[in-house]
Protein: Peptidase M14 domain-containing protein
Amino acid sequence: MWFIILSLVLIVPNALSEFRFDNYALYKIILKDVDQVNFLKSLRDSDARFDFWNDPVALSSYVNVLTSPKDRNEFENILKSKDVEFEISTENIQDAIDREVIKTYTRGNIKSMTWDGYYNLSSINAWIDDLAATYPEVVEVITGGTTYEDRAIKGLKISHGEGRRAIFLEGGIHSREWISPATVTYITNELLTNDNEDIKAAAQGFDWYIFPVTNPDGYIWSFENARMWRKNRRPVGEHVGVDLNRNWDNNWMVVGASSNPARDDYAGTAPFSEPETKSLSEFLASIGDKIDMYLSFHSYGQMLLIPFGNTTAPLANYHDARNIGARGMGALSVKYGTLYRTGTIAETICK
Ligand SMILES: [Zn+2]
Structure:
């Protein structure tokens, strides 16, 4: 079994939030050398006021950071003191949030799910139920686990018969990354409706286990309260939420995670301390023997990340994984002009 994290471009943010981001500015910081990368890493890790939308890495030429109006001056002074070059790519991120299109799914009409806007959790869940009703021979509604607020992690299994190996797709573990569930539902729709022979072969050749929203509580919160909410919704002391993508029982807290509950990458009190990761991992274990590929969708950045993050030691099938990934990303590039980088987490974002 191997894991891939696919990062996609984020089309940002909504009008419903109680918490607004008026005059929050998005900075584009140009990285010139390793010293600047290291400086920005330490700033990210030491100051929770600055919201890094991507990681400062040597291979990347820039990093985007969201900053509140009251912290902007200080932020710019910090950058200037280290001769870090920056530009302001968005003066008021709330404008971008207000421009986001939120659509409503019409129950019983699977054609009312489209990919030119975002859908809330109940729309996505209703669509999953309707797919099962429309394709009863092929689609089964499945539950991957339970959330802190006692919601089901709802998904679907696409299967054209017994005895197939499996592919596992997961989206929305970081709730604010709305393009992730949208991408996963798009792929689901292609697998069920596209007549292209290659796509049909992929759809029919595997059992597909698909969970568009693996952090349902956080996803709802990002729609109804705070657009930039990333974690789950479990209270931890005076703070709320654990970064579910940092809570798995695999090299927990080794790299790229925080023990500070105030932070967005807070890893939780222990591995699998959260009901979402605990229950989803149990579901995974129940089908683990048949999984050939696991894709987790995030935003943003054009990267196809393969294991591992905690070490540069290659996984057993590193060359296969890298070749398959690079070919896939090459095909995307031909079609869409994207420039995805393929590599391990350790060599791509931890360096
Ligand atoms: Zn993410």
Summary: DSSP finds ten helices and 16 strands in the chain. The CA atoms of residues 257 and 265 lie 5 Å apart. The first strand starts at residue 2 and ends at 8.
